[in-house]
Design brief:
With about 160 residues, the chain is an alpha/beta fold. The protein has helices at about 1-35, 75-85, 105-125; strands spanning about 60, 95-100, 135, 140, 150-155. Helix 3 links the parallel strand 2 (about 95-100) and strand 3 (about 135). The protein starts with a helix and ends with a strand.
Length: about 160
């Protein structure tokens, strides 16, 4: 009977060691989590569908090669946009930047985007609410037209 009690004691000791190890692991994990900052809440993503262009552009602004600065004549276009928005309070402004297919496509798309952003910034500075301005993905022009057509931003009020 003494052999049985020794086996029972060994079995109980093994179970006690396992339970102690599990408890220590759980406590250690809980302590490690307590020292870490809570995860930041995930920001809600709002997807705004940009409408397709409708009708002719109200204005076309042209840029110098490799540049995104507005020309002096942009002020007239900005004034026309403000007048059109004043006449139609629920209208939006749709900006489309263009580039040609030559050279690095990614670099050209970034330049077209920078040009559209320059127009957006000028509109906002003139008092147009940023929420009324939508930018379309940069578009590629055909290589057979005049070169300045590839360096433009079209403005539509719709």
């Amino acid at each position: 009977m003494s052999d049985q009690s020794d086996d029972s004691d060994v079995g109980l000791k093994v179970v006690a060691v396992i339970v102690t190890a599990v408890v220590a692991a759980v406590v250690g994990y809980a302590v490690s989590l307590a020292g870490k900052p809570a995860a930041a809440p995930v920001a809600e993503v709002v997807v705004v569908e940009v409408p397709e262009p409708v009708g002719e552009a109200l204005a076309r602004l042209y840029f110098e090669i490799g540049q995104a600065e507005l020309a002096a004549e942009a002020a007239d276009a900005i004034a026309r946009v403000q007048a059109a928005l004043g006449a139609t309070p629920d209208a939006i402004v749709l900006l489309s930047g263009f580039h040609d297919p030559s050279g690095d496509a990614a670099q050209n798309a970034e330049l077209a985007k920078a040009r559209a952003l320059a127009v957006r910034d000028a509109l906002v500075a003139a008092g147009v609410a940023e929420g009324r301005i939508h930018l379309r993905k940069p578009e590629v022009t055909a290589a057979d037209g005049p070169p300045e057509e590839a360096r433009r931003v079209e403005i539509r009020v719709q």
